[in-house]
Amino acid sequence: MQTPSNPLVAAKALDQSIWLDFIQRSLMESGELQRLIDNDHICGITSNPAIFENAIANSSEYDQQIRTLLGDQPAIPPLEIFKHLAISDIKAAADILKPVFDNSRGDDGMVSLEVSPTLAHDSDGTIREALELHKAVDRPNLMIKVPGTEAGVHAFEELTASGISVNVTLLFSLDRYRDIANAYITGLERRLADKAPVSAIASVASFFVSRVDSRVDARLEQHSDTSAATALLGKIAIANAKASYLHYQNTFAGSRFAALKSHGAMPQRLLWASTGTKNPEYRDVYYVEELMGPETVNTLPPKTMDSFRDHGIVEPRLLNGLSGSEALLNSLHPLNIDLAAITKDLEAEGIAGFAEAFERLLSAITEKSRHLA
């Protein structure tokens, strides 16, 4: 078979799904999303509070809907306005991606909508809002996005048991990913025990990549044992992701999941997030290329997507060195670099960053409402 000239299309031929980490109303209304589907084989969308903040606060595309909402309900709170705006965008994107969903195994063509980041440590609140959003969007190709905190692990299991497709986000550590994979299988097992179908549930575990190297590289560059430290620069985030992929392979090829698979259950794929390169000394598509491999998803912001389309190399590099990935992570121990502590900090910072973006978004909606009422 001839290799497609467009690296984004070639990635799909390798069984990696490329999703777009961006949403804005004009993306759907202009036909750009459909062009990305047709020309680049983009087959999903992820969103987060920061993306919606940029879309809503920094454009006039939502002003008319805000005016209408204020006209109907002059005292409508900013949070409710946001939900109306976001749900409208998610519905529109889901409808455009529905043919992709229908033609896939049922795990592509998905659009992700995140619960409020203020609920990151509130299992019950996360479950309530996830169910509310799922009902409001009412699309089979919706994924509710839940942060992979300790509370999020419990919420995820409950939502899976309830038949909700979930994107578990802000995963940085192998240990937390193991908890998430177990929660997915447990949720499906509970469903099957209740004689409920497990075949229409999709899930991804969103593993954040480049932020790990940003933090670890800074520690390595300060280390007195320069030769050992230099040898690890730019390698720990990839090894962390590969160790997780190895666990994915072992878990979803194992006997426990086999029983669920016989009833139509789909494995929870790993999704690579934060794959834009932050270190200018690294190739701008470094993380995209190194994590190219089967049965995975990579969600790319527009700039990284453009770069990869232009000069990305598509090879199944994810499969290289899997068995040695955990040993590479363990090589941090003699250097007194605590990866577990680093990933714990990154999780907390990620949640805080999304919460701050959410607060800025609500403030921007409040200000817009004053001018548009």
Per-chain topology:
Elements: H1 7-13, E1 16-21, H2 25-29, H3 32-40, E2 44-46, H4 49-57, H5 63-72, H6 78-103, E3 110-114, H7 123-137, E4 142-147, H8 150-161, E5 166-171, H9 174-193, E6 203-208, H10 210-221, H11 226-230, H12 236-252, H13 255-261, E7 269-273, H14 286-290, E8 296-300, H15 302-311, H16 325-330, H17 339-372
Parallel strand pairs: 1-2, 1-8, 2-3, 3-4, 4-5, 5-6, 6-7, 7-8
Helix pairs in contact: 4-17, 6-17, 7-8, 8-9, 9-12, 10-17
The CATH superfamily is: Aldolase class I
How confident overall, as mean pLDDT? 96
Enter the CATH topology name: TIM Barrel
From the alpha-carbon coordinates, what is the Rg to the nearest angstrom?
21 Å
- Main beta-sheet annotation: 8 strands, parallel, barrel
Please report the distance between the alpha carbons of the first and last residues. 58 Å
Tally the helices. 17
- The structure class reads alpha/beta
- By CATH, the architecture is named Alpha-Beta Barrel
Shape: globular
What's the β-strand tally?
8
Total separate domains: 1
What would you say about this model in short?
This protein is α/β, with parallel strands linked by helices and 373 residues long.
